[in-house]
Amino acid sequence: MTKDWTVNELKQKLETDIPQPEYEGGWNPDIEEQLKLYKDFQTEFPVAKIRNLTLKEYNNTERKNAFCYWIETRLRKLGSIQGSTSYKFGIYEYNENPRDDNGYSFDGQYAWLSKYGKSSDEAYEKVHSNIINIIEAAQHADLDEIEKIDVSPMFKWKIAFLYSDFTLMNIFSREGLVYLANKYGLEFADKATLCELYQFLLSKKGIEEHILKYSARIWNEWVNSDECKSKKNNIQGDSQMTGYEEKLDEIKNNLLANKNVILTGAPGTGKTFMAKQIAKELGCEDDNIGFVQFHPSYDYTDFVEGLRPKQVDGSDQIGFERKDGVFKEFCKRALKINDEEINDFFFDRQFSVKGDLTGFNVIIKDENIEITNPYHNIESSKSEFRDYLNNTESVDKNRKKIQILVYDYIRNEILKNKKQNFVFIIDEINRGEVAKIFGELFYCVDPGYRGEKGRISTQYQNLVTSGEFQKGFFIPENVYIIGTMNDIDRSVESMDFAFRRRFSWIEVKAIDTVGMLDPKYDDNGELIAGLEKNLAEEAKRRMKNLNAEISKIEDLNDAYHIGASYFLKLKNYGGDFESLWNYHIRGILQEYLRGNPNAQEELEKLKAAYDREKEKKDGE
């Protein structure tokens, strides 16, 4: 439970901390002022009140005492989350017309993220439940649980800090956290989740150093860095993820939690591109990313394993041999142990291995491995073990059973702690007959049965005589699966329910990926992704106008919106929007309108929206 601190108690606690040097840089917080703000907030919003918080109390533009106003504005000196949009609160009351982009709903008084519900009451019920879950997880210091909760990242983590009894940091800028984690030695910090960044940085805090002092101290390391000097605001938290980055972060965190994710949405929303980008963010090199596109003729023998014709050596006869499919071969790669992992394990280590009757003590030192118990004494070399670890089919069966036992122990320990991620992407997953393609893999694809506990016998298991899967196939713990599908593609009308429940489903809407159009430059100022700034802004405007018009047509909805991927093709036509319309957009819209008695009239309206000039403001 959250302690009911008094300001004097908090001040006294701070005075017992290790003295810190004077802060340098742009962030010199008044700790006493921070403590008073913290106390004022706890007095105004105790947990008991949050449990019965009304929507008016949560977010009301006319009240400076609303929960969201406190979090964003009144507590800015406890770490800023200002910027972005009010949709980070999930639901909010508005004075002006809300943005009409896809993914948002409004009823005349409140606007909210459509994913939370069909009405403001339904949306707030979901948001309110999420807020309570954040608070409860913060009180138990369960950062992994906080990461999973579906709330805008900075808003979520600031709430967590405020109910954590000073066990969490009050820094909410991902950019700053990544810089600091990288500086303090976290590998691939830019690929880490916010949860992982917090956990790592908290591990670097001195036991007696107060969290407010620690946060301010390391924040100034970011403020004084060359990377931050060009930033306008230096208050803790003042940098925002774009909507596209937030969507990537949502998908990545969901994938890490569930192992399997399917991205659904309209054609051209960049789902496959996003899948590959997420794989890169998880630290995957090209060899760690698998890719296949399902189609009606694709089957189990292509995906898992099957019999393939083979010419018998020295004759004209044709026989058959078992061959691994693309996914099984990928899982083999994920189990391959690299030299760095072997060297890490083989660095001066001592452990015990349980045998049939007794335990064996194993000492790894220099280039030797010694295996002993009261009855046996076996010496081996590291090189022998290295040869075995990635060539299991060539194990010398004549070696002593004890040595094989230690081989297997070392291999399992390395695999259990393997940090290298592998991502397998299945494009157009709904165009294949998934029950036929996956077969008995339905069992081990379940995230709860990853690793050796999920071993299964495949259809041709009796022909597997060596290797990692000799005792049965399993999907390694470090393998993640991302499927993509278009909602309006009816080549397969429905997917197996047993398959559906093994995947997390995330809708990717056109508005989610509009950030793909933003320009990205290399160190030499060369454009490497997106469109040049002016062209990108024009593309966004046309995309928004076109999709708004599509939503007005009967039987069409946001599943038929035109995604950013279409507009990236402008690079092929020197920025000519007319060519983009003629060669790419018009065709798909005509397909959407097939069977519509007013097809030509509707197409003309869509073209007019696409061509509409920017509306001028009053007085221009």
Account of the 3D structure:
There is one protein chain. The protein is α/β, with parallel strands linked by helices. It has four domains: 7-241, no CATH class; 246-312 and 323-331 and 420-508, P-loop containing nucleotide triphosphate hydrolases (Rossmann fold); 338-416, no CATH class; 510-611, no CATH class. It is built from 25 helices and 16 strands. The strands form five sheets. It has a five-stranded parallel beta sheet, with helices on both faces. A four-stranded antiparallel beta sheet has the order 8-9-10-11. A hairpin with a 5-residue loop joins β15 and β16. α22 packs antiparallel against α25 (599-611). The N and C termini lie far apart (57 Å). Residues 14-27, 231-235 and 616-620 have low confidence and may be disordered.
